[in-house]
Amino acid sequence: MKWNKAVQGLIAATFGPVMAVAILHAQPRPEPPKFTFVSPAQEMQIGQQAFQDILNQSSAKISHNPEHNRRVAEMLERMTPYANTAVRDWQFVVIEDDTPNAFALPGSRVAVQTGMFKIADTDDMLAAVIGHEIAHVELRHAARRMDSQIGVNLVGGLIGQATKGDKFSNLYNNLYAFGAKGGVLLPYSRKHELESDQLGVWYMAKAGYDPRAAATLWKRMTKAGGKKPPEWLSTHPTDSRRVQEIEEYLPFVMPIYEETLRGS
Ligand SMILES: [Zn+2]
Q1: How far apart are CA 104 and CA 80, in angstroms?
Q2: How far apart (Å, rounded) are the C-alpha atoms in residues 186 and 142?
Q3: 223: helix, coil or strand?
Q4: H or E element, residue 104
Q5: Cα Rg of the chain (Å, integer)
């Protein structure tokens, strides 16, 4: 009996602190998928090609506003070192457009429209937008969306093989078309949005931006809704739970933010 007690005590002493830490870190930093059918190289190619296509569009007016460009550059410089992405040379463009919008593409490319600077008018809020977009890239949400399309195509291809046989070889052509349009520009799923919100505020904390600004930003975004919701909302489906979920994650990232502030 005594021996059992001793063992129990030992277990408690050994695992007690571990369990306490595990509970504190119950909401871990979201991580990219271990495996996707679409390789990082394929995803990068699709994303960078789509970025080039956007720049080549005659309707896309590049903004050379020095202040806007400086702010985006600084945010990428501060936050992307904490993003585990295959492509480290992040590039961005500011597009002259009053619609508040921003997006990131696989292959580490970011675009921010000038209208976004009006809603996200502090560095912390703008960092919330950009952190969220960087997170979509690290978490490889485009690849995961393309993966689900591969699933559809594989089933379609296998059925097609029995009849025609050429569908399967078109898989990657279809994938590019899907990647450039749907994979990049379709709304993300609620789950992916939540993950990006969490990882986005984690980057903010690491880089010394106040993570609480993410909740403020979403409140503002929703308020700016009304009859003509901001374009960002159309590719970033939101609901009343979103701000609440960001706020629930804050206790996990605020100590990281405070640590960053102490360190700098
Ligand atoms: Zn998003």
Answers
A1: 12
A2: 10
A3: helix
A4: strand 102-105
A5: 22
Q: Which residues contact 101 (CB under 8 A, 6 or more apart)?
A: 112, 113, 115, 116, 230, 231, 232, 235
The label of the residue with tokens 């600084």 reads: 74
- Clarify whether 133 is annotated catalytic: yes
How confident is the model over 48-97, as pLDDT tens digits?
988 888 888 877 899 999 999 999 999 999 999 999 998 999 999 999 99
More confident position, 219 or 259: 259
Q: What is the mean pLDDT of residues 217-221?
A: 90
Q: Ligand 1 centre from 173 Cα, in Å?
A: 26
Residue in 52, 46, 264, 60 with CA at minimum distance from that of residue 173: 46
C-beta of residue 188 within 8 angstroms of C-beta of residue 141: yes
pTM of the model: 0.79
Q: Cα(164) to centroid of ligand 1, in Å?
A: 39
**To the nearest whole percent, how much of the chain has pLDDT over 70?**
69
Ligand 1 centroid–CA 135 distance in Å is: 8
Query: Side chain identity at 87, as an amino acid letter?
Result: V
Per-residue confidence (pLDDT) for residue 168, from 0 to 100: 39
The packing angle between helices 190-207 and 241-263, to 10°, is: 20
Question: H or E segment at 105?
Answer: strand 102-105
Q: Is residue 207 within 8 Å of 79, Cβ to Cβ?
A: yes
Q: Which amino acid is residue 125, in one-letter code?
A: M
SS3 115: coil
Give the angle subtended at the CA of 39 by the CAs of 161 and 152, to the nearest 5°: 35
Distance 152 CA to ligand 1 centre (A): 23
Centre of ligand 1 from the C-alpha of residue 255, in Å: 24
The token pair at 172 is 């990657």
Q: Which of 133, 138, 193, 195 is catalytic?
A: 133
